[in-house]
Design a protein that fits this description.
Largest sheet: none
Shape: elongated
Order of helices and strands: HHH
Number of helices: 3
Length: about 60
């Protein structure tokens, strides 16, 4: 498992917050002309991170 650690949910939350802040501060949404509310973007990133957290790492 990719996140097979005692604090895996904390790591997932921190990773998703870091990813969201990185995309927001680098103006990724403006650069690609994506109009999305901040909470939808954060929920999408967190959902993808949670889904990838249980996948095997090849």
């Amino acid at each position: 498992m990719l996140f097979n650690h005692r604090y895996r949910y904390l790591f997932i939350i921190i990773l998703s917050l870091y990813t969201f802040l990185n995309t927001a501060l680098c103006d990724v949404y403006h650069y690609f002309n994506i109009e999305i509310e901040w909470y939808y973007a954060l929920l999408t990133i967190t959902g993808i991170t949670f889904n990838m957290g249980g996948q095997p790492a090849y």
